Amino acid sequence: MKKEFPENFLWGGAIAANQCEGAYQEGGKGLSIADVLPSGKDRLELLTKGKGIPEIDTEKYRYPNHEGIDFYHRYPEDIKLFAEMGFKCLRFSVNWSRIFPRGDEIEPNEAGLAFYDKVIETLLEYHIEPVLTISHYEMPLHLAKEYGGWKNRQLIDFFGRYCEVLFHRYRKQVKYWITFNEINSAFMIPYMSLGCFIPTPEDRDKVLFQGLHHQFVASSRAVKRCHEIIPGSQVGCMILCAPVYPYSCDPQDVWKAHQEERLMNYFCADVQVRGAYPSYGLRYMAERGVEPKTESADLETMAKYPVDYLSFSYYMSRTEKADQGDVSAVTGNIIGGVKNPHLAHSEWGWEIDPLGLRILLNRLYDRYRVPLFIVENGLGAQDTVVGDGSIHDDYRIAYLRDHLAAARDALDDGVDLIGYTSWGCIDLVSASTGEYRKRYGFIYVDKQDDGTGTLERKKKDSFYWYQNVIATQGRNLTD
Asked: What keywords sit in the KW lines (predicted)?
C-alpha cells in the first residue's frame, strides 16, 4: 500500500477571481454576473428562484465581491504565503470581464491582461504551476443582459475570441487549462453557469440543454485551439460531483439514485470526455422535446476534440429516495437529496463523507480512463481568532486529512489522480451565500460580513498542517 502521493503530484489550492480579487471597477474591468449578486439569504434566493438579472442596490444590500479579499492589490503577499506552504500549483480563474469588459469587443483590455501577466509571473517565480480556469462564474454582465447568456449561440464566438487571447498571451507560461467551472451546475444555478434566468418551469430544460450545447461546442473549439497554439498543453473540463447513494436497497431507490447520478455527475463529462451525447441523455431530451438546435459541424467538433483530463469539485455525497414523504430533505446546499443518517454535516448542512471521495474517484476513473484532478475540496466553517492571534481549526484539518486519506486509497485502487487543490486556500467570499464568515482557507483574512476588517492575513493551524503534508508527500497526514 502506498504511504505517499506520487512525486509529481500537483499539490496546491484553488481560488476564483470574482470571490477574491475585488477591484471590481479598476483597470478597465466591466461588470460581471457576480458583481450584481448581494450577500446573505437574498443571494441564494435569487440564484435558485430568481426570474431576472438584478441591478446593484447598495442602499439595500452588501456586495462583498466588490472588494473580495483585495487579491487584486495583495496577490504578491498571498502568493508568497502559498509558496511558503509549498504549493506546486495554484488553480485560479481569469475574470472574463477584465479582458473583455462587455464580452463582445474585438480588442481586449490591455490593463486586464497586464494584471494577469503579473500574477502568473509571480507564481512562476515561486515555481508554482498555474492551473487556469477560463470561465468561473464570471461572464461579462453585458453578455447576460443583451444576449441572454449561453442560450445565445453568439457566445461561442465571443468565448473563442477570449480563449485565443489567453492562449497566445500565456502560451509559454500556462500548461494546464480548464474551460468551464462546474459546467453541470447549470442544472441548479443556471444564472452562475449559463448567465441566464429561466422564467418558467416549462422553459427550464429547453434553455438548459441549449445553453449546455453551446458550452460543449465552445469547450471543444477551445481544446482544438489550445493544442494548436500550445503544443503539449492539457485542457480539462470541470464538474461539480457528488456520488449518489440510494436511501435503501429498494429497487425504486436504487433506480432513482442511478438516474440522478447519470444526469448530474456524468452527462456533461460524458460529452466532454467521450465526445458525444450519451444514449440516456438523448432519450431524456427526446422524451421532453428539448433537443438543442445544432449546426452541422457541432457533433463532429465535439467528437474530435474531447478534453485531456477530468477535474472536479467534491464537498459531499448525495442520497436519493424515490418516495421522500417520510424522510427529511437536505438543507443548506444546492444539490438536494435526503439526509443520510450515517453522515455528520457541517454548519451549513453539507454532509461530510470522506469515503464518498474514494467512491467517486473510482467511479469516474472506471468510466473515463483519463487523468483525474481534484480541484475543489474543503470545509466552510466559522473560525475564531483567539487572544494571541492564533486560529485553531482542528475541524478543518480533520476534514482535509480524511479526504486526502481517501484520495490516497484511490491511488492504491489504481486511479490516475494527478493533483489536489483545496478550495479557498485563503479565505474569500462564499459563492453560494456571499459571506465572509463561511471560511475555507489555510489563511485567515480579517474581513467581516458587516464590512469591517483590516484584510490582514493570519496563518491558521491548518496552514502548518498542509505545509507538512506537502513536504512529506502525504506520508504524515495525521501529524
From this structure: Glycosidase, Hydrolase
User: Left (φ > 0), alpha (ψ -120 to 50) or beta: where does 24 sit?
Assistant: alpha
Q: Between the CA of residue 218 and those of 198, 206, 215, 237, 451, what are the distances in Å?
A: 21, 19, 5, 12, 38
Could you tell me whether strands 129-135 and 234-241 are parallel, antiparallel, or unpaired per DSSP bridges? unpaired
Of the candidate ranges 1-5, 192-196, 205-209, 444-448, the one whose mean pLDDT is the lowest: 1-5
Name residue, grid cell 502559498: 82
Quick: pLDDT tens for 238-283: 999 999 999 999 999 999 999 999 999 999 999 999 999 999 999 9
Please state which of the four CATH numbers 1.10.10.10, 3.90.550.10, 3.30.70.3270, 3.20.20.80 is assigned to the domain occupying 10-471: 3.20.20.80
Beta bridge partners of 423: 14
Confidence at 9, pLDDT banded by 50, 70, 90: very high
Phi, psi of 288 (to 5 degrees): -100, 0
Selected catalytic residue, list 67, 138, 376, 435? 376
User: What region, left, alpha or beta, does residue 344 occupy, with left being phi > 0 and alpha being psi -120 to 50 degrees?
Assistant: beta
Q: 390-427 pLDDT, tens per residue? A: 999 999 999 999 999 999 999 999 999 999 999 999 99
Whole-angstrom Cα distance, residue 148 to residue 160?
Answer: 17
* Cβ atoms within 10 Å of 325's Cβ, excluding its own: 5
Would you call 473 exposed, middle or buried from its count of C-beta atoms within 10 A (0-12, 13-18, 19+)? middle
